[in-house]
Amino acid sequence: MIKIFSRDPEYELGGSGPTSSVAATWKLSFDQILKQNPQAADLLAIMIFFDRQRIPVEWLRRSTENKSGQNQIDFEDQLGVLKAFSLVSERSDTSDTLEMHRLVQLMTRNWLVERGDADLRALEAIDIMSHHFPSGDQGTWTECAENLPHALKILKDPLTSKNSLARRSQLKRFALRSKIIRYLISQTLYVEAELQTKLVL
Q: By the number of CB atoms within 10 A of the CB, which of 5, 12, 126, 148 ranks highest?
């Protein structure tokens, strides 16, 4: 059974019925992935910090290729494993983005906490998002709008806001939120911008 580690309803799972059956099936699949391709499990672990819809494949590819000893072929192998187990899927309208089912995202997140790797993956997700979120200046607004759900989810997740995270990542969180505020103001979303400003202070 998958344990629950957060009291935030956004990160909770039910403990019986269909959800319990899904959890058991997911656990068997994930155990097999860990044996077959541990790097694929690491890739899935990073993805849980993003919004579950429209996850850019390019972000994940660059992150994988930046790791020592990995290349595009390694990335395609890892992604192929996740697709084969139906843990992620390509959108019907494009192969440039991926989707995850909400239960897969929640169960992977809770497994990550249980294994003790949450901080490491949270750092990677912050690095990816801070690198790819645009400046918020005119000319980047379309890309900002596309990336905003991912950025807000990462900043909201308790795992990425822990005081135990490295100061470098705290600074990257600050820089990311600053770009979000700049974009929100440019769109005259002043209430949302004020909320993000209060979270910085």
A: 126
